[in-house]
Amino acid sequence: MAATPAAPTSPAPPLKTGTPLTRRNALIALGISAAYLLLSASLLGFKSDQLVLVGLFNGLFFLSDPTRRFILGFTVFIVFWVLFDSMKLFPNYRYNTVHIEGLYHLEKSLFGIKGADGVVRTPNEFWDRNRQTVLDILAGCFYLCWIPLPLAFAGYLFYKNKEAFFQFTLSFLLVNLVGFVVYYACPAAPPWYVQYHGFEFNAHTPGNTAGLGRFDDFFHVHIFSGLYAKSSNVFAAMPSLHASYPFTVLFYGIKYRLRWANLLFAVITVGIWFAAVYTSHHYVLDVLAGITCGVIGISLFQYLYRNVGWFTRMVQRWVVAITAQSPPP
Questions:
Q1: Alpha carbon of 132 to those of 122, 128, 143, 215, 253: distances in Å?
Q2: How far is CA 49 from CA 55, 202, 236, in A?
Q3: For the stretch 216-225, what's the b/e string if a residue is b when 16 or more beta carbons lie within 10 angstroms of its beta carbon?
Q4: Shortest CA distance to 285 belongs to which of 146, 107, 120?
Q5: What is the tens place of the pLDDT at every residue in 259-289?
Q6: What is the pLDDT of residues 10-38, one digit of tens each?
Q7: Alpha carbon distance 242, 138 (integer Å)
Q8: Would you put residue 52 in left (φ > 0), alpha (ψ -120 to 50) or beta?
Q9: What is the mean pLDDT of the chain?
Q10: In this model, does residue 202 exceed pLDDT 60?
Q11: How far is 17 from 23, CA to CA, in rounded Å?
Q12: What is the C-alpha separation between 167 and 150, in angstroms, rounded?
């Protein structure tokens, strides 16, 4: 008997997103975008950054199922950026006294370095007197990692493990929220402020590249000058969220056993901590406060995720919303 030919197999239908492009979802996305643009323009004034953000979000939302899953996951970072940018509306120095002189003397008493001339200086002052070109370059390179590192790590987790992705990104958001609370509870001037302006408070002091300006000068670029020109608040040096971000990445790298990648994370983490002090952007106290914020934010997320039902369900629904779903047979 002749063998019965096998039925031709049709190609598998494409995977669909957990958030399909319905009319309702499209209107929600467009409505939120329009509301954000109107509110930001009226409160902060029009900025091209706002159009870029809205254009990026809507472009990826409407382009395809995979890009919609991606941008819905990374909405956590959009929320962070909007909150950080909105701090310009509510400068922290309006609500509490800015710590300048007391913080400087506390830093010197705890971590002061005695020079050959017998004078005790803060670590920032010590490194300012002992600057080296190779350290200027390394400090700039490490500092440039402070946002790309968590974004790249989040991108890896997004495609590797959606639940791990949200554990990291929501911890990242909570770390920032804890840091923002401290910004308002304890406004603090950075070390460079004392170096250039002394102990007198001036609310209209612009942002400054401080030691990072030497990186710009060496390479004849305007990377850090452009970044610090957009600073939301000069008097938000404590805690150092520059110290919190790589710490959070390293914690989850260890948690998910990323092996050799953790060595890279550890080097970048320590490098950013050193660069923060070397370039006079933060005191050692600021770095320690940033690490503490990291511990609090991560611990808070882990507690909520394990013990608070509505929070756990919210995260799980978000996971479903960005996960590709197989169509019914």
A1: 18, 9, 16, 11, 32
A2: 10, 28, 22
A3: beeeeeeebe
A4: 107
A5: 899 999 999 999 999 999 999 999 999 999 9
A6: 455 555 567 888 999 999 999 999 999 89
A7: 15
A8: alpha
A9: 90
A10: yes
A11: 15
A12: 13
The amino acid present at 77, given as its one-letter code, is: F
Q: What is the pTM of this model?
A: 0.89
Provide the pLDDT confidence category of residue 326 given band limits of 50, 70 and 90.
low
d(CA 5, CA 245): 60
Asked if residues 74 and 60 have their Cβ atoms less than 8 Å apart, the reply is no
| CA 317/CA 32 separation, integer angstroms | 20
Look up residue 227 and give its two tokens.
């970044």
Amino acid at 8: P
The tokens describing 62, both together, are: 């409407």
The predicted-structure confidence for 89-107, as pLDDT tens digits, reads as follows 889 999 999 999 999 999 9
87 φ/ψ angles, rounded to the nearest 5 degrees: -60, -20
